[in-house]
C-alpha cells in the first residue's frame, strides 16, 4: 500500500486565450486525478485568473496542510499567480503544461507551454529548486510517489536499540543532520528494554506455531525455538507500543550472548509481515526501507554486497539470515540454523526468489545526504550457503556497480525490493537537492 499524501491542485488561465477549453480540460483532469490511489485532493475548482483569484486560492490552500502543489497552466496566465501560491505553500510544486489544442481561426488557444516556462523561470530566479515540470495530458504519478517518500521520511520515528554494531562506523548517523535533511526523528532504547519486554504467553505460543509452520527447525533445540518465538513476540509488541516507523537493532555482538539467540530469525518473520527492521543499528538503512515502502514496495530488506564474480558478471546479495521469509524461492529448504555465535546464531537460511529488483541506499556523508540507485535482476541459484541470499545481475558490468559503491564510500547495506522503483526516487533527490549515484 502506498503512503497517503494530500495534494493541492489549481488551474491557471487568462481570458485572452481559450479559457473555456481550459475549463473543460480541467474538469476531466479532476475526474482522472481522483482515480489515483492514496491521495487526498484539495481542488480549487474554478480557474485562477486574476491576482485576486490567486490570493484567494493561496489563502484557501494555506489552511489545508498539503504535501504538494500542482499548478496546471490551463492557458498562459499572469506570472503573479504561482508566486502567490508558493509564498503561502512551502511545498514542492509540479508545473503542468498541457499540449496545445488544434488551432482555431489562426490563433493559438492555450499557450500553456509558455505559461510553464514563465513559472519555472520565476521560481528558479526566486531561489526555489523544488519544482518539477511536465508537458503532457496526464499527471506525473512518479512525482506523486516522490512526495509519498518525502512525507514518509518527514513523519518517520526510527527507533534504535543499543547502538550501531561494533566497528560499523559507516552506518552511524548524526541525528540533527538526519532530521534537517529528512524530518525523521530517532529515539534510542537499550537492548534490555526489548529483552525484558513483557508479552502474553499466548502471543509467544502463536509465534512458535507460525515459526514451525514456516521453517524447517529440525536442527534447533526446544530452547532455541522458544527464544526465537519469545523475541518475535517482544519485538512486534515493542515496535507497535512505541509507534515506530522502523527499528534499527544492534544485533551483535551482545545480543546472542545476553538473550540466548541472535535476532535474525525473528526479524525474518516480522519483516515478512511489514515491519521495517534494520540490522546492525543502521538508521540510514532503515530510512531507505521506509522510502521503498512509501512507494508501495513490499517487504524491503537490507543486504550486503558480499561477492562479485567478474568473469560470470554477477553479484551475491547476502546477509547472515534476516531477509523476509515470504521472499523464499519456493524451491529450496527454508530452514533455521545456528551456524554462528557459538551455536546461538539462529538465522533464516534460504535462497530468495527470482525477479526484477530495485536497490536504494540513502546515505549520509560529509555533512549531507546522497542516494544510490540501481536496477537489477535476481536469477535462480542453488542453496549453497547459510543465511539468506540471491544471485544478481545488473544491466551493466558488475565491476562498474561495485566501483560506484567503493569510489563513493557508500555504506555496505542497501535496501532491495522486487519491482521497478527508480524514477520517483530520482525526483525525491532532485527535490531535496541530493546527489544521485547511479
UniProtKB/TrEMBL annotation:
<keyword id="KW-0413">Isomerase</keyword>
<protein>
    <submittedName>
        <fullName>L-fucose isomerase-like protein</fullName>
    </submittedName>
</protein>
<keyword id="KW-0119">Carbohydrate metabolism</keyword>
<dbReference type="InterPro" id="IPR009015">
    <property type="entry name" value="Fucose_isomerase_N/cen_sf"/>
</dbReference>
<dbReference type="GO" id="GO:0005737">
    <property type="term" value="C:cytoplasm"/>
</dbReference>
<dbReference type="GO" id="GO:0016861">
    <property type="term" value="F:intramolecular oxidoreductase activity, interconverting aldoses and ketoses"/>
</dbReference>
<dbReference type="GO" id="GO:0005996">
    <property type="term" value="P:monosaccharide metabolic process"/>
</dbReference>
Amino acid at each position: 500500500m502506498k503512503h497517503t499524501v494530500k495534494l493541492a491542485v489549481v488551474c491557471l488561465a487568462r481570458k485572452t486565450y481559450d479559457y473555456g477549453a481550459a475549463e473543460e480540460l480541467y474538469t476531466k483532469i479532476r475526474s482522472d486525478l481522483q482515480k489515483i490511489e492514496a491521495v487526498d485532493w484539495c481542488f480549487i475548482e474554478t480557474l485562477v485568473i486574476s491576482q485576486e483569484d490567486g490570493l484567494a486560492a493561496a489563502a484557501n490552500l494555506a489552511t489545508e496542510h498539503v504535501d504538494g502543489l500542482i499548478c496546471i497552466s490551463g492557458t498562459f496566465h499572469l506570472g503573479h499567480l504561482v508566486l502567490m501560491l508558493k509564498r503561502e505553500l512551502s511545498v514542492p510544486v509540479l508545473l503542468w503544461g498541457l499540449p496545445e489544442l488544434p488551432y482555431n481561426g489562426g490563433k493559438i488557444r492555450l499557450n500553456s507551454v509558455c505559461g510553464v516556462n514563465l513559472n519555472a523561470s520565476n521560481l528558479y530566479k526566486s531561489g526555489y529548486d523544488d519544482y518539477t515540470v511536465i508537458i503532457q495530458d496526464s499527471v506525473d504519478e512518479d512525482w506523486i510517489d516522490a512526495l509519498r517518500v518525502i512525507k514518509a521520511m518527514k513523519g518517520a520515528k526510527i527507533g534504535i536499540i543499543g547502538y550501531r554494531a561494533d566497528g560499523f562506523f559507516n552506518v552511524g548517523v548524526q541525528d540533527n543532520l538526519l532530521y534537517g535533511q529528512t524530518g525523521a526523528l530517532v529515539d534510542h532504547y537499550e537492548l534490555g528494554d526489548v529483552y525484558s519486554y513483557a508479552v502474553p504467553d499466548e502471543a509467544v505460543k502463536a509465534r512458535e506455531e507460525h515459526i514451525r509452520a514456516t521453517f524447517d527447525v529440525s536442527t534447533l533445540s526446544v530452547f532455541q525455538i522458544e527464544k526465537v518465538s519469545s523475541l518475535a513476540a517482544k519485538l512486534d509488541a515493542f515496535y507497535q507500543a512505541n509507534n515506530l516507523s522502523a527499528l534499527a537493532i544492534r544485533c551483535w555482538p551482545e545480543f546472542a550472548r545476553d538473550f540466548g539467540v541472535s535476532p535474525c530469525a525473528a526479524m525474518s518473520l516480522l519483516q515478512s509481515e511489514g515491519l521495517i527492521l534494520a540490522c546492525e543499528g543502521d538508521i540510514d538503512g532503515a530510512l531507505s526501507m521506509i522510502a521503498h515502502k512509501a512507494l508501495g514496495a513490499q517487504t524491503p530488506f537490507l543486504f550486503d554486497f558480499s561477492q562479485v564474480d567478474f568473469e560470470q558478471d554477477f553479484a551475491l546479495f547476502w546477509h547472515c539470515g534476516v531477509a523476509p521469509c515470504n521472499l523464499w524461492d519456493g524451491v529450496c529448504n527454508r530452514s533455521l540454523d545456528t551456524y554462528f555465535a557459538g551455536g546461538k546464531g539462529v538465522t533464516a537460511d534460504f535462497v530468495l526468489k527470482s525477479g526484477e529488483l530495485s536497490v536504494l541506499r540513502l546515505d549520509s556523508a560529509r555533512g549531507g545526504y546522497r542516494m544510490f540507485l540501481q536496477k537489477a535482476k535476481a536469477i535462480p541459484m542453488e542453496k549453497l550457503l547459510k543465511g539468506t541470499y540471491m544471485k544478481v545481475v545488473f544491466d551493466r558490468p558488475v565491476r562498474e556497480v561495485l566501483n560506484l559503491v567503493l569510489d563513493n564510500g557508500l555504506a555496505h547495506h542497501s535496501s532491495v525490493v522486487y519491482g521497478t522503483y527508480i524514477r520517483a526516487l530520482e525526483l525525491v533527490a532532485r527535490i531535496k537537492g541530493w546527489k544521485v549515484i547511479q
